[in-house]
Amino acid sequence: MRRRKRRLLGILISIAGILIAACFLGVLIYTEMIPTKYMILAGAVLLVLLLGGAFLVWDARRHIRFWIGAVLHVLLALVLIVGGFYIFQTRNTLSDISEVGMDAAQIEVYVDADNDAVSVGDLRDGTFGVLKDLDRANTNAVVQQLEEEFGKDIEITEYEGLTELVDGLRSGETDAVLMNQAYIELFEEVEGYEHVQEEMRSVATEMVNSVTESEKSGDGTEQKESVRRVSTLQSGADSDTLLVYISGIDTRDKSMVARSRSDVNIVAAINTKTRQVLLINTPRDYYVPLSISGGIPDKLTHAGIYGVDVSMETLEMLYDISFDCYFRVNFSGFVDIIDALGGIDVYSDYEFNSQNSPGYYFQQGLNHMDGETALVFCRERYSFEEGDRQRGKNQMAVVSGVINKALTPSILTGYTSVLEAVKGSFETNISYNRIAKLVKEQLESGGAWNVVTYSVDGTGDSQKPFSMSVPAYVMIPDQTTVDKAKQLIEQVENGESIHLDL
User: Fold this and answer.
1) Cβ contacts of residue 375 below 8 Å, gap of 6+?
2) What number of other Cβ atoms are within 10 A of residue 396's Cβ?
3) 472 DSSP β-pair partners
4) What does 27-73 look like in DSSP terms, one character per residue?
5) What is the dihedral sign for C-alpha 476, 480, 485, 487?
6) Looking only at Cα atoms, what is the longest distance across the chain?
């Protein structure tokens, strides 16, 4: 009887090990990322370890051998449980960022900072200022919401542009204004309006989700905002080439919902067969027609105000391409990621003191940065002669620093924190199945990728953009560099490897 009990203990330990190993393999299968050959290898290794452990614990009378086997089972179980947990978390995180969220316009009801109103209900009998044409569909949606709330029509006064809208509030012509929150930062570029955000106070926020009805542009032509939020890369997609729009937004919070200017606009041309990646950067101030502006040029960064689709379509018009999907990054969310990684090392082309955030100093060469410092580095532009050109380079340097640190073993110490931060900082409309397939292909074939970067250029000028009512700094495109970018994209799509002498 005692002998049976001893053997039963060994059997139970072995069964527990088998169940844990089976669950681990199930998690690997669930990710859909692991190639078959590696699944077979993992299964074979686990089988050998389990058989060896079972042999050691089979007879509890042999104490030393039994305890060695028991310890082996415990260690193996711990490794499989922890590893399975991390893999499962990774799978869920990738799934979360590939689930397209709401792309909403955030419309604020602003009053003068000295106004006594504490809620929108206090403005029931007031006059509301609105933009006559710009972003009118979203404004109309909020007007309708307010009228339903008040139970009556509200009085509105129309203004041609943003500065006129604010002037109406300043002069007392209106009691409040309805304005897309994304427009606020545009006033930083207008002399005499730099402190508008301090002069006004929001008493209500209304979210308008993906307006699709026709609007009127500034010249009276119809414009229509498209809704292209579902990826063309579904599970059955099988193409060697991808054109991806990478958008870098810099909202002051970590939300990926509300629309915002896109400060980084990169076209990524990827050929998975030739392992070629081409990254083309387009400056934020590039002066080009937006897809919804009826041919009127605007700063490329302003396209993000009208949604990620408009940014994509505008670049498609510029380069004569068609994107497969997009990938959006919120640089503010990098703070938590960088802190979870224990800081990153970033190369600075110049020595400078930040003018945006006094008290921050950066030396030429490598700088170790925590999250807040890296964000200051990303946002700085006034310290450089090249302004936004250099800011774009700095942002890419921070991205590179994050990638380099994430590839080191130190990522394991804060892995769960990194995953949590990633959920709020990244968004893509590539399906999870497609992501899994790309990872699986990389694991199967291995090998290095040829990554080439290129930036189009232009000349500075002062023009009146579509989204503004006064002249502002813009960059007039250098068509020669645009044509060169088109040529490089075509070469990647044709399976050619490219090398640039930079």
Assistant:
1) 331, 332, 334, 335
2) 18
3) 463
4) HHHHHT-S-HHHHHHHHHHHHHHHHHHHHHHS-TTSHHHHHHHHHHH
5) positive
6) 97
DSSP-derived 3-state class of residue 269: strand
Helix axes 415-425, 63-97, angle to 10 degrees: 10
Cβ atoms of 338 and 410 within 8 Å: the answer is: no
Question: What digits encode the pLDDT tens for the residues 409-464?
Answer: 777 677 777 877 777 677 888 888 878 887 787 777 766 778 787 889 999 999 99
Closest CA to 452 of 274, 244, 269: 269
CB atoms within 10 A of CB 448: 6
For 145-155, what is the mean pLDDT? 92
Give the integer Cα–Cα distance in Å for 291 and 300. 11
CB atoms within 10 A of CB 197: 16
For residue 478, the model assigns a pLDDT of: 95
Q: Hey, what amino acid is at 117? A: A
CB contact at 8 A, 20 and 80: yes
Residue 212 has pLDDT above 50, yes or no: no
Q: Are strands 176-180 and 127-131 parallel, antiparallel or unpaired?
A: parallel
H helices of 203-281, in order, are none
**450-455/344-348 β-pairing:** unpaired
Q: Cβ distance 299 to 474 under 8 Å?
A: yes
- The structure tokens 């940065």 sit at 369
Instruction: Provide the pLDDT for residue 103.
Output: 64
Q: Considering only CA atoms, which of 137, 302, 301 is closest in space to residue 224?
A: 137
Which two tokens mark 149? Answer: 């709330």
Residue 255 or residue 164, greater confidence: 164
Residue 294 has which token pair?
């009826």
pLDDT over 80 at 86, yes or no: yes
| CA-wise closest residue to 423 among 330, 349, 493 | 330
What are the tokens at 180? 């897309």
Percentage of the chain exceeding pLDDT 70: 88
Please give the structure tokens belonging to residue 412. 């394991």
Residues 6+ apart with CB under 8 A from 47: none
Query: How far out from the chain centre does Cα 346 lie?
Result: 20
| For helices 388-406 and 371-379, angle between their N-to-C axes, nearest 10 degrees | 150
Closest CA relative to residue 20, chosen from 40, 49, 41 = 49
Question: CA separation (Å) from 16 to 20, 47, 53, 191, 377?
Answer: 6, 13, 11, 71, 51
The residue among 441 and 477 whose pLDDT is bigger is 477
Q: Residue 158 gets which letter from DSSP?
A: E
328 contacts 427 by C-beta, under 8 angstroms: yes
Which residues on neighbouring strands pair with residue 346, listed in sequence order?
A: 367
Phi and psi torsions of 93, nearest 5°: -65, -45
Question: Could you give the CA distance from residue 289 to residue 283 in angstroms, rounded to a whole number?
Answer: 14
pLDDT average, residue stretch 139-148: 92
Written as one letter, the residue type at 439 is: V
DSSP 8-state assignment for residue 454: E
